[in-house]
Write a structure and sequence with these properties.
heterodimer; A: alpha/beta; Rossmann fold; 7-stranded parallel beta sheet; 7 strands; 21% strand; B: alpha/beta; 9-stranded mixed beta sheet; two-stranded antiparallel ribbon; 9 helices; globular
Chain lengths: 188, 255
């Protein structure tokens, strides 16, 4: 499945935003497809916005999958609200809470400016479901609209994760509105 | 200094601040020669914004001068090292100059706590002479509030800012006057006079939303240009001040 999903991702044009639907059990295949195949093949710098798990948990998972993390930076919106005493890591920037949506945009902007100019950027939002727990739909809609359009203007790829089990009509409406296309990991 | 007359945007040369978001808010930058009040409570980013404005000027070949009233220049320069856009050569080459105002007070014998009208005239003349001699195109006085404390009376404050602004504008110098106010203040400057005379007002504040504290920036007035009056959220990063719009769906009334 990872290979087939990676092939679909490789078809995406620069500056596109995709709604990446998956079941929880597909998560590791999706991560492998993105960071082990798609991003290296396209020579992308990746910014992983995590609103579900602390960045170090994702980093551990990537290590287990033997995925190189040299070109992956994290915007971690979870560690501080969990009051976890995470060690300082040059590849991780903390945002106090997933409710500070403007700060997420600012940290992504900072990492893009900080990254190597010759490389295109890939921004992964994990996940719309977690963001919808912490924010009302009106502000979430506004946030994604501004973020995706801003990233599009920079020719960056945006992938927004959505766990099928936790989707509702409001989430589906937002994703239909802001994303150019939907990719289903289950069907890959 | 222009007195209330708002020219069409295309008619005024711009002083590009180098803060991308702010230049966009101001339709290209601060109209050259304007005197702008940068006001806010402690920790809102006034000094960072002002210093970035100067560094950008120095990097683009404009002589830039920072007059420090409260913090020592030496300490300030040490803090600049962490910024990626700061180049120490700008200081060495004299393109970016830091001066401590207390040293000027000392040399002029102006160490008293309250200035009379003659002292105000002397202080204004010294600053204008510095700008003229150094061919300064960008000036920051941080903070003008500390200077105003010694002027006490609104008339003297008015005279100081008006005379200074008029002279500096004549020299083509764009000036930021950093002003300190308390977080609960219902006006833009401590004495209420500075805001009426300045060509522009940029407010920097802390905005609390459901327990989250966001740093914000808002341009409420800028003569000589059209500009956004919306509130923006800012971040102080090693690559400079970054701005994004404040999300309006997050207001209390919107739930």
């Amino acid at each position: 499945m990872a290979r087939s999903l990676a092939d679909q991702l490789l078809e995406l044009p620069e500056g596109s935003a995709a709604w990446l639907r998956m079941r929880t059990e597909d998560y590791f295949d999706v991560v492998r497809a993105i960071f082990d195949v798609f991003a290296p093949k396209k020579t992308l710098d990746s910014i992983y916005v995590t609103c579900t798990l602390p960045a170090h948990s994702i980093q551990n998972a990537l290590q287990v999958l033997e995925v190189p993390t040299d070109h992956i930076w994290f915007v971690d919106c979870i560690s501080q609200i969990m009051m976890s005493t995470a060690e300082r890591d040059e590849h991780t920037i903390l945002v106090e809470s997933p409710t500070m949506l403007e700060n997420i945009m600012l940290k992504v902007d900072y990492l893009i400016r900080h990254s190597q100019r010759e490389r295109t950027d890939l921004i992964v939002i994990d996940s719309i479901n977690s963001l919808s727990i912490h924010n009302n739909m009106k502000i979430l809609n506004e946030f994604l609209h501004i973020l995706v359009n801003n990233l599009r203007s920079k020719n960056a790829y945006t992938l927004i994760f959505s766990m099928e089990e936790y989707e509702n009509d409001e989430v589906r409406n937002i994703m239909n509105l802001v994303c150019d296309q939907m990719i289903s990991a289950r069907e890959a | 200094m222009p007195q209330g007359k708002s020219e069409p945007a295309a008619d005024r040369d711009r002083c590009v601040t180098g803060v991308e978001g702010l230049d966009s808010i101001l339709s290209g930058g601060i109209p050259r020669g304007n005197t702008v009040l940068v006001t806010g409570s402690v920790g809102t980013g006034k000094t960072s914004l002002s210093v970035e404005f100067l560094i950008h000027g120095a990097r683009t070949g404009e002589n830039s001068l920072y007059i420090s009233v409260t913090e020592s220049s030496e300490k300030l320069i040490q803090n600049l090292v962490r910024y990626e856009y700061f180049e120490p050569r700008l200081v060495k080459e004299g393109r970016l100059i830091f001066i401590d105002l207390p040293l000027i007070y000392h040399r002029l014998g102006l160490e008293k706590m309250e200035f009379d009208s003659q002292d105000v005239t002397i202080l204004t003349k010294v600053i204008v002479d510095l700008v003229r001699e150094m061919r300064t195109k960008r000036l920051v006085i941080d903070s003008v509030t500390s200077v105003c404390y010694r002027l006490k009376e609104p008339e003297k404050i008015r005279q100081f800012i008006l005379d200074l602004g008029t002279a500096l504008s004549g020299l083509g110098c764009t000036t930021l006057l950093v002003s300190e106010i308390s977080p609960s203040a219902d006006r833009y400057s401590l004495f209420g006079v500075e805001e009426a005379i300045a060509d522009g007002i940029v407010i920097m504040s802390n905005y609390e939303r459901r327990g989250d504290l966001l740093r914000t920036l808002q341009v409420v007035k800028m003569r000589g240009t059209t500009h956004s009056r919306a509130k923006y959220v800012l971040d102080l990063t090693p690559v400079g001040v970054l701005l994004v719009p404040l999300l309006k769906g997050g207001s209390v009334t919107a739930g």
